[in-house]
Every structure is written in C-alpha cells, then in structure tokens.
Amino acid sequence: MTGAKRAINAEKYERVRAVIAQIKDQGRDRDLKATVIARRADVHRSFVSNHFAAEITHAKAEIQSRFMTGLAGQTALSAASLRVELETAKHQARAGQQEIRALKDRLARTLGEEIAAEHPEHGVAAATVSSLRAEIEQLTDTQNELRRQLRDTEEELQAARRVNRTLIRERNAGTSDA
C-alpha cells in the first residue's frame, strides 16, 4: 500500500513539474498560480502550494529574466531608432525655422513696399536709411583710424619711457662715480 501511495505521489510530482515547465516554456508567468497548476495537473491546490512554492517562484523569476533580456535588446533597437527619429525631427525643425525666417523677411519687405507705395510721403525714409548707413561706415572707418593712432602713440610713449629710464640710470651712475 505504501509503495502504491509513493507511486501515485511520484506521478503527481511529475505532472506538476511538467505543467510548471510547460508554463515556463510558454513564458506565461500569470499562469504560475497554484490554482491553475493544480487544475492542469489534476491535483489539489494545497498539494501544489505545499510542495512547489519554491519552484513556482523560481519559474516566475526565470520568465521575468527572459522577458527583461528580450526587452533589453528591443530597447537598444528602439533607442537607436528613436535617436535617428530625433535627429531627423531636429533637422526638419531647423529647416522649418529657416523657411519661416525667410518667409517673415519676405513678408516684411512686401508689406514695407506696399506701405511705401500707399504713403509716398514716407518714401524719404529709404534715402535717410542709406545716408545713415554711409555715415555709420564713415564713423567706423574713423574709429578704426583713431584706434590705430592711439596704438602708435602708446608704443611711442613706452619707447620714450624706456629711453627716459635708461638716461636716469646713466645719470645716477655718473653722479655716484664722481
């Protein structure tokens, strides 16, 4: 009788292990519950809970590990594709911004021309602008020339100071020898 009972229990153990292995191979960790396993193995739920808790936990961990490993590969691929998409979007945004800038400039010129045509009394503004630009150029040239003269003057001043120091040293050396 004891031998028959052991044989029945051994068969139950094998059925439960086979069900756990099958669920693990399918990757369905939500099916790794004592009730589901007991139903598939045709055993009582308490038999599964009492004897296979560690195996169920281990199987869940293995399924999750395989899932995370698979996600890591997918994440790397999707991260690379996301970077490409991001660069493409940045490029398109820059091109769009340049186009918007060009359109704004064109619109401003067109509106300016329309307003100038409607109000001829303000047409003098263009002549004023060109004369102001010429004056700015002249002032910039004058400023550059003055900076060059200042540099030359500073160099001459430094040279004069060096000569002055040399003469003072020579004079002091001459009076202390006498």
Main structural class: mainly alpha
Average pLDDT for all residues:
84
- Return residue spans where pLDDT drops below 50 for at least 5 consecutive residues: none
Strand count, sense and barrel status of the largest sheet are:
none
Q: How many domains in all?
A: 2
As a percent range, the share of helical residues equals over 70%
- Indicate the proportion of strand residues: under 5%
The coarse silhouette is elongated
Number of helices: 5
Strand segment tally = 0
The SSE order reads: HHHHH
Please explain how this structure is put together.
The protein has two domains: 2-78, no CATH class; 124-178. The protein is elongated, with a radius of gyration of 46 Å. The protein has helices at 2-26, 34-41, 45-51, 53-118, 124-177. With 178 residues, the protein is an all-alpha fold. It has five helices and no strands. The termini are far apart.
Entry keywords:
178 residues; mainly alpha; 2 domains; 0% strand
Please describe the topology of this protein.
Layout: H1 2-26, H2 34-41, H3 45-51, H4 53-118, H5 124-177
Helix pairs in contact: 1-2, 1-4, 2-3
